């Protein structure tokens, strides 16, 4: 089992622990704001399980039906997470509405706040781990999970402050009002997750600055060629596909063209780990005079 799968399983364990802590905080207080925080933690568990599935699928080798591999499964996980987050937000809005209609005093609020703070601290620490490891291993599933947990921590802190104000001021209407604000924040988070994941499913390319660096590497290492044009990239989870046309002299031999391509592949794969490079060799009369000029 590789590190990303271990991290995904760790997310399931942490999410279950935090879920138990937050539901206990709600039970001892009766606060609908703390309930909203606990409902969001249910989504954390579901999305952690989805990440485990997505990482398992994404690591399967390419086959006859999927010659480009299965790495895009991680984007499906992130989209599912966004959908579930939106569902949680709607459930929280319902609870907030019911609490507005019939406000209830809070029981043992300070105990509930202490318990809730413990769950938030655990979430925050694990979110930092997921973000760091997700960037290191270029895993959309881990990054999405980490971002969601970070948003959950911010939400939880707001909830704890709000419940504290309810206790200090005695204004019971603050409790459902905080829950409604939590729901709006959760909706925004879900939209962001789905938008970014959909871009991945639509073959979004590398950022402009990274693409410019690739073109610079091609120009610096394509000695013996004339021009490179139509440089394209697309990202599929941790994999990056790079392709372009390389113009060589009309009298160049197959071996000479092949050597240039081999050199470029080594350089590009060293610069972009987990990349697949495809180079289409063309004769001099295919030169477009608008690509990367080598000579």
UniProtKB/TrEMBL annotation:
The chain crosses the membrane at residues 7-26, 38-57, 78-98, 110-130. It is found in: Cell membrane. One of its GO terms (biological process) is intracellular zinc ion homeostasis. This is Protein p34. SUPFAM superfamilies: Cation efflux protein cytoplasmic domain-like, Cation efflux protein transmembrane domain-like. PANTHER family: MITOCHONDRIAL METAL TRANSPORTER 1-RELATED. InterPro entries: Cation_efflux (IPR002524), Cation_efflux_CTD (IPR027470), Cation_efflux_CTD_sf (IPR036837), Cation_efflux_TM (IPR058533), Cation_efflux_TMD_sf (IPR027469), CDF_Transporter (IPR050291).
């Amino acid at each position: 089992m590789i590190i990303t799968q271990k991290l995904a399983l760790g997310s399931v364990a942490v999410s279950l622990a935090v879920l138990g802590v937050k539901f206990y905080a709600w039970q001892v207080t009766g606060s609908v704001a703390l309930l909203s925080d606990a409902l969001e933690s249910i989504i954390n568990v579901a999305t952690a399980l989805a990440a485990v599935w997505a990482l398992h699928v994404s690591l399967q080798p390419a086959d006859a039906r999927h010659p480009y591999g299965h790495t895009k499964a991680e984007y499906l996980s992130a989209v599912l997470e966004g959908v579930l987050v939106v569902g949680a937000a709607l459930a929280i809005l319902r609870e907030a509405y019911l609490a507005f209609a019939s406000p209830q005093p809070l029981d043992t609020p300070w105990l509930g706040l202490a318990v809730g703070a413990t769950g938030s601290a655990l979430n925050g620490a694990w979110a930092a781990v997921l973000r760091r490891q997700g960037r290191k291993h270029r895993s959309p599933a881990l990054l999405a999970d980490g971002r969601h947990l970070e948003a959950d921590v911010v939400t939880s802190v707001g909830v704890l402050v709000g419940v504290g104000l309810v206790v200090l001021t005695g204004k019971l209407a603050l409790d459902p009002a905080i829950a409604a604000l939590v729901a709006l924040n959760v909706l925004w988070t879900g939209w962001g997750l789905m938008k970014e994941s959909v871009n991945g499913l639509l073959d979004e390319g590398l950022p402009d600055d990274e693409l410019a660096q690739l073109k610079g590497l091609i120009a610096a290492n394509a000695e013996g060629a004339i021009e490179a044009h139509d440089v394209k990239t697309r990202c599929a989870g941790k994999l990056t596909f790079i392709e372009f046309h390389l113009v060589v002299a009309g009298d160049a031999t197959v071996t000479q063209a092949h050597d240039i391509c081999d050199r470029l592949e080594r350089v590009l794969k060293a610069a972009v780990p987990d990349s697949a490079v495809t180079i289409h060799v063309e004769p001099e009369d295919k030169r477009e005079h608008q690509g990367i000029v080598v000579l």
